[in-house]
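Title: [Solved] MFS transporter 3D structure

Original question kept below for reference.
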Amino acid sequence: MHFKNYINIFKDPNFLKIFISSNLLNFAQSLVNITIIWLVYNQTNSAIFIAIAVTSMQLPGVLLAPFLGIIVDRFSTKLVASISLLTKSILFVCLGFLINSNNNVLLFLFLGINSLTGPIIDSCINVLIKELFDNEKLIITNSLMTVSFDLAYIFGTLASGLVVITGKSKITFVAIAVIFILISWILNSIRHDTISKPQISLSFTKSIQHMSTSLKFLWQQRPLFNVIIVSFLWNLLIWGSLPVILPIFSKFFKRSILIYSSFNSIQSIGIIIGSLFAGMLTVKFDKVKIIYLSIVSQSLFLMIFSLQKNALLALSLFLLAGICSAPCMIYKTTYLQECIPENRRGQVFLLNSTLSTVSYPIGNFLTALLSKKLTNHIGIILFVFSIFLIIFCIFLYYNGIKFSLSQKR
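Solution (posted by the thread starter after getting help):
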């Protein structure tokens, strides 16, 4: 791959539409997540209500979304995504009027319903990318999707600050609803050959059956199963721990607030740089090996980072860790898109999304518990987590190879 491939893919109208949709979706979602938590706290002055709000924004999706995989695999991907987006838009109009009211029950109920739509939309976008592009374009497409996520997160965070300062919450929520409607329209305007989906009857029993057969398929494809497991562990031990570790770790440096904000920014910059390089380079290694090497190299840099007392060196190592993490994000998604059969793609992506969602709060909670006893040595937690992750990577990688060799005999 060369830089001209980025120029060429932007000439594809379907890519432009899905890229713009992804940017708008990530921007709106990052704006929502931060704004709601702040507004709930501002209204209630209660940490308990923040916990309930966060739970409402995640738990229903974690518990119920995997059972909805049959819908993504049964109906048109664009149709399912559009209905989910329109549902979100209606919910956010309602949330705009509820956020400053005292009706917390309805507020948390609507947040719970909204949590069901997120994993479905994410799954639909991943499935739609595979439907639109051949294998040669998947890596560069997924690299740009990763870049868009980090850019949208940065701008969404900045925009949420403006909402908090101005107090224009109702207007903001209506604007977010309009963005979701716009995304729905853009996705529906994509033109491609309609793919015939399997005619699966819709029922709770069929949903359970579809999910169980998809899990059985993953277990029979051990390298694929192991990639999903290592992704879960990666999110838990690294991405779930960093939000707790970084604020404490930053206090050991002069100008701790500046260092903390720099850590967050430089991580996103590293991921963007790594994503662009991953999309440009032609790599002869297989995708599974790249996924594991990416995680291991990031873990090694984080181990060294966790021991640093020099701010500049710590920032440099954190940048390198961010760069190393990007290939895993890109090649993992590409590997799943290529290896999962069409009739199970939506279900498996929903299961993968659910595991990712679950891993973050577990990682937060585990790190918070450990930090109570290791506040003055917070870097040790990241150091040990990184070692564990490297061990898991080695085991799961060679377990997948061993399984593949046994299947060939």
